[in-house]
Amino acid sequence: GVFLYNHLQQKVRNAEALAQKYKQQQEALSAQLQVVYEHRSRLERSLQKERGEHKKTKEDFLVYKLEAQEALNKEKQDSMNRYGALSSQHKILKNQHDDVKKQLLDLQLQHNSLRLEHRKSLESQSQKLAQLQQDRDSEVTN
Question: What's the whole-number mean pLDDT along residues 78-104?
Fold first, then answer.
């Protein structure tokens, strides 16, 4: 009976030692699991924060993009208006230039005809003067 009692006590001690060992392992695993859960919780908070920042950055970018597009459209419209005004002014100046060219040609033609008329008049006056001198010389000789 003593032998059986010792043997059973030895088995109980072995079982208690094994239970203690498993309990320590369970506590170590529980501590590791707690660390993993805390790390996961920090990562989730960090992820949520990053998502919030990303969303804000995306919204800011969309606002910037919209403002840039509006500014570009406004600048394009202003450029088109300036182009239209310059084009109209160019047409007006071109028409004025053509008118001035036409006036210049008319004045050149008028100048040439007046020069020709003046030359004819000068030749006519020279001939009359020569004729008068000849008549005077002939009267003097007579």
Answer: 98
